[in-house]
Write a structure and sequence with these properties.
A three-stranded mixed sheet has the order 1-2-3. It has a two-stranded antiparallel ribbon with strand order 4-5. It starts with 10 loop residues before the first helix and ends with a helix. It is mostly helical and 480 residues long. The protein folds into three domains: 156 residues, MgtE N-terminal fold (Alpha Horseshoe); 121 residues, CBS-domain (Roll), CATH 3.10.580.10; 171 residues, Orthogonal Bundle (Tetracycline Repressor, domain 2). The chain is globular. It has 22 helices and five strands.
């Protein structure tokens, strides 16, 4: 890659601005031409339209598929579909892989079955497996029939594994060599390739039945004597490999821990059937992170920012309904102590502090626990130990910060008893938040559910209702 061709993180923003400017200029000029009364008006209008279309198409042709995907996601639906029609058909498959699930759906809806089939046929088996769930069944069937025997078997294999497994992430494009050949033979073999598969940092050494015997790094291949045999140079100990059934989370942790670029995937008989690359792992981590962020906010799935009102409503209503119920419960808790609030108006000003601090503390705890679960650092047996530790943190914070707020309440309202109630309520609510922050994600994991989904919503609901009840209950007992 030359200096002029180097990509920078802000380039995609510049590309987006340029496309938006071209679209805006096209609209302004075509509107102006449309309003003019001139000879051969329709011909002039068509020429202007084609000129702007050619400029936009030329801009898109020079962009990477990932950049085009980013631009499509950032455009309103009408402009998105117009730009999509200008993309070269042979690039459709790559771009469909890059865009978000929600935007991909809007693009696929506009494509004819023949276009979808052509886009799918341009992809490798592992890429096609990623796209398959979004394609109509008849298109998948046509594509499947068009594949050769090896391609069909690879596609069937890739689609047979759960999406959070190594088998769903692996690709089949790899280089294998035998252990009984010389490095010179390997070098001659590699020169026959137009290009090596992406992220090839090692070759997989196999026997005649494709059993994994070791790995040959490109570094060893280049610096070793060409007359040596592969068996003399390869590494056969401490070779990190995966099976298709392995959890993708665990594979991602191994890639991070050992700084891997690629690794072989083997079946139960140690035959090499594919490989896992850092690109696959990074994509998986990004998707998992986005899913966790969305689930914490109570969103069911990734949402097209320019989706219709109805689509957005369907994506958001579930946890909003739960929030409505929890907010109603919190309001009824407050209603139970209306008489106390009427007698001591200061309670109305102070109770949101107790609930708010409890919610923040609980979300801190559950975030740490969910992260530890995702990293594989926490087992169910550790719940009691973690709970004890988090209760200790909550007790310390409750006494220190609750005490500070108690002194402040005493100073503002001239009541030492109110200050003591404030300190006690803050401490108790932080203990409640800590307990919920540990137990909610760990119990969800034990039940086989995603520990991250809705955690913050449940914590906030519990600390709001619990905080109001504790604070107003103590105030009613000791101040009335």
């Amino acid at each position: 890659m030359t200096q002029e061709e180097e990509l920078h993180p802000d380039d995609v923003q510049q590309h987006l601005r340029e496309v938006q400017e071209l679209l805006a200029r096209q609209k302004v000029v075509e509107d102006l031409v449309h309003r003019q009364d001139m000879p051969r008006h329709e011909l002039v209008e068509n020429l202007v339209h084609k000129q702007h279309e050619a400029s936009l198409r030329a801009k898109l042709d020079e962009l990477h598929p990932a950049d085009i995907a980013y631009i499509l996601e950032a455009l309103p639906l009408e402009e998105r579909l117009y730009v999509w029609d200008l993309v070269k058909a042979e690039r459709d498959g790559e771009i469909l892989l890059e865009v978000s699930d929600a935007v991909r759906e809007s693009l696929i809806e506009t494509m004819a079955p023949e276009e979808l089939k052509a886009a799918a046929e341009s992809l490798d088996a592992d890429e096609l497996a990623d796209l398959a769930p979004d394609l109509p069944p008849e298109v998948i069937q046509d594509v499947f029939q068009s594949l050769d025997t090896e391609g069909r078997e690879q596609l069937r294999t890739a689609m047979s594994y759960p999406e959070d497994s190594v088998g769903a992430l692996m690709d089949f494009d790899m280089v294998t060599v035998r252990e009984d050949v010389t490095l010179e033979v390997v070098l001659r073999y590699l020169r026959r390739f137009d290009e090596l598969p992406d992220h090839t940092d090692k070759l997989f050494v196999v026997d005649r039945e494709d059993h994994l015997k070791g790995i040959l790094t490109l570094e060893s291949l280049l610096i070793s004597d060409p007359e040596l045999e592969v068996a003399e140079v390869m590494r056969s100990e401490t070779v990190i490999s995966f099976t298709p059934e392995d959890e993708a989370d665990e594979a991602a942790q191994a890639f991070e821990r050992y700084d891997l670029i690629s690794a072989p995937v083997v079946d139960s008989e140690k035959r090499v059937i594919g490989r896992l690359t850092v690109a696959d792992v990074v994509d998986f981590i990004r998707e998992e992170s986005e899913a966790e962020i969305l689930s914490n906010a109570g969103l069911r799935e990734e949402e097209d920012i320019f989706a219709s009102v109805w689509d957005s409503v369907k994506n958001r209503w579930a946890w909003l309904a739960i929030n409505l119920v929890t907010a109603f419960v919190a309001s009824r808790v407050i209603g139970m102590f209306e008489d106390s609030i009427e007698k001591l108006v200061a309670l109305a000003a102070l109770m949101p502090i107790v609930a708010g601090i409890g919610g923040n503390s609980g979300n801190q705890t559950t975030t740490m626990i969910v992260r530890a679960i995702a990293m594989g650092q926490v087992e169910q047996s550790a719940m009691q130990r973690l709970l004890k530790k988090e209760l200790g943190v909550a007790l310390f914070n409750g006494l220190v910060w609750g005490g500070l707020l108690g002194v402040l309440a005493w100073w503002l309202y001239g009541s030492a008893s109110l200050g003591a109630v404030m300190t006690s309520a803050m401490t108790l609510n932080l203990l409640l938040a800590a307990s919920a922050g540990v137990m909610i994600p760990m119990l969800r994991q034990r039940l086989g559910a995603d520990p991250a989904i809705g955690g913050s919503v449940m914590i906030t609901a519990l600390t709001d209702s619990g905080g109001f009840f504790i604070f107003l209950g103590l105030a009613t007992l000791f101040l009335m």
